[in-house]
Amino acid sequence: MTTGIAELADALLAGQRRALAKAITLAESTRPEHEGQAQHLLTLLQGRAGKTIRVGLTGVPGVGKSTFIEALGVHLADQGQRVAVLAVDPSSARTGGSIMGDKTRMPRLTVHPNAFIRPSPSGGTLGGVARRTRETMLLCEAAGYDVLLVETVGVGQSETHVAGMTDLFVLLTLPNAGDELQGIKRGIMELADICVVNKADTNPQAAVRAQTELRTALTLLTPHDAPWRPVALKASALTGEGIPELWAKVQQYAAHVDLNAKRYQQTAGWFDELLREAAWREFQRQTGTEVIHRARQAVQSGDLTAVQGVEKLLASHRETASV
Ligand code: GDP
């Protein structure tokens, strides 16, 4: 199988679409033997990606994410850039179904020779989905894709995951910003490097007002010493207005911020997260969930302080481990 993986790596590096799709399916598989093969493949591809840019996009359902990604993607692909669209969809983690990254929502991009669209992996935890998307990004980059657009829905936790795996994060909002801002969690605004008032064509005056309000909000949210001051733009995914300006800002950001340093930090953060999860699973396995449950109850009932409860569990874990 090792030769099979080496061949797959070669085909993928040559930019073969089928090899990329196969590699992603391998990385998404939860079967243990596939996991080993996927990790082997990733080591073979290490350092083989060109210079890429990873852009995360979010916004509430209906704001126009897929229309926007289609317009931006076609704009870039027409210029000869190779564009991959991926999605992190928490609802697919829960239900096993996915509406995001659905190819039927991006008809022109789907058939563009320079584009590759992959729906969110379904099933598993949000952490698991995020991890597979991260690996899919590495595979797309090795296959020669220059721009990665990662879509997520603006309702909660998945934004933090996507912001942690992309170079910059774009938040789409609507012209009726007053109402809109209340629907967006402040935490998501804080993640945004660029905010875009979409659907500016529907009400140009309201769009300008919303842009001004967003600017003020972003100024208040951004620390003075931040390496980048988030900007507010307006656009129409339907007419294409504002799309080139958005891309110019992305390039300005890439020139301004040290992306290598940012990715270096993100990789460390990812490693720590995986280690924390794995260590916790291992701890639960060795200690037993029932024992952990009893210690938690003892803390809840006041028989032990929280610190004592943890120390007790650790002491019994050390004993088991040293046997
Ligand atoms: P998503 O749920 O965020 O992915 O939103 P969609 O891309 O599916 O868009 C929701 C609806 O808004 C669709 O009917 C789009 O055609 C429409 N839409 C998206 N962008 C624009 C825009 O810039 N202007 C107008 N007028 N409609 C838009």
UniProtKB/TrEMBL annotation:
Keywords: Hydrolase
Gene3D superfamilies (alphabetical): 1.10.287.130, 1.20.5.170, P-loop containing nucleotide triphosphate hydrolases
GO MF term set: hydrolase activity
Pfam families noted in UniProt: MeaB
CDD domains found in the cross-reference section: MMAA-like
Domain AAA+ ATPase: 51-218
Source species, domain of life: Bacteria
EC number in record: 3.6.5.-
Top EC class for this record: hydrolase
Family listed: Belongs to the SIMIBI class G3E GTPase family. ArgK/MeaB subfamily.
Cited NCBIfam families: lao, PRK09435.1
Name this polypeptide is given: Methylmalonyl Co-A mutase-associated GTPase MeaB
Provenance organism: Deinococcus antarcticus
